[in-house]
Amino acid sequence: MMNYKGYTASVEVDVEAGILFGQVLDINDVITFKAKTVDEARQEFQISIDDYLAFCEELGEEPDKPFSGKLPFRTTPEHHRKIFNVGLPFKILLRCSTQPTLELFFRLNRAILDMRCDRNC
Predict the structure, then answer these.
(1) pLDDT tens column, 70-92
(2) 9-54, pLDDT tens digit by residue?
(3) pLDDT of 72
(4) Whose CA is closest to 48, among 17, 84, 22?
């Protein structure tokens, strides 16, 4: 993984072509680059980001931003209270108790999808 100006890229080896192929992660726009060495890949990644930002500025559009990890959302007062109460016995702050709750939700969701696939496949 490489980071530059808040953007993250992954790099993979294309053995057949003999190149490193990189792609910027966590945005809707597609930004790719290629190189022959790790140093060249890092440089091409940075050039690609700078070109992308300049292109967006030329168009007068906001560049796509990577996920920040901040997820503001609205809920009912009842759910708000339940989320708060999950952490209360352990003296966990509300902002800290939502992460384990979301992780549990994703695991349960994955398990349910796996069960459906087992039954239908």
Answers:
(1) 667 777 888 777 766 666 665 55
(2) 999 999 999 999 999 998 989 999 999 999 999 999 999 999 999 9
(3) 72
(4) 22
Q: Tell me, what DSSP letter sits at residue 68? A: -
Q: CB of 49 within 8 A of CB of 56?
A: no
User: Please, are residues 50 and 14 in contact by the beta-carbon 8 Å criterion?
Assistant: no
- Are 56 and 72 a contacting pair, CB within 8 Å? no
Please give the Cα distance from 30 to 43 (Å, whole number): 18
Q: Which amino acid is at 13?
A: V
Extract the runs of DSSP E, i.e. beta strands, from 56-100.
Answer: none
Say how many residues make up the chain: 121
